[in-house]
Amino acid sequence: MLMTNTDTVPGHTIVTVYGVVSGSTVRAKHIGRDIAAGLKNLVGGELKGYTELLQEARQEATDRMVQQAQSVGANAVVNVRFATSSVAQGAAELFAYGTAVQVE
Question: Is residue 74 classed exposed, middle or buried when 0-12, 13-18 and 19+ CB atoms within 10 A define those classes?
Answer without folding.
Answer: buried
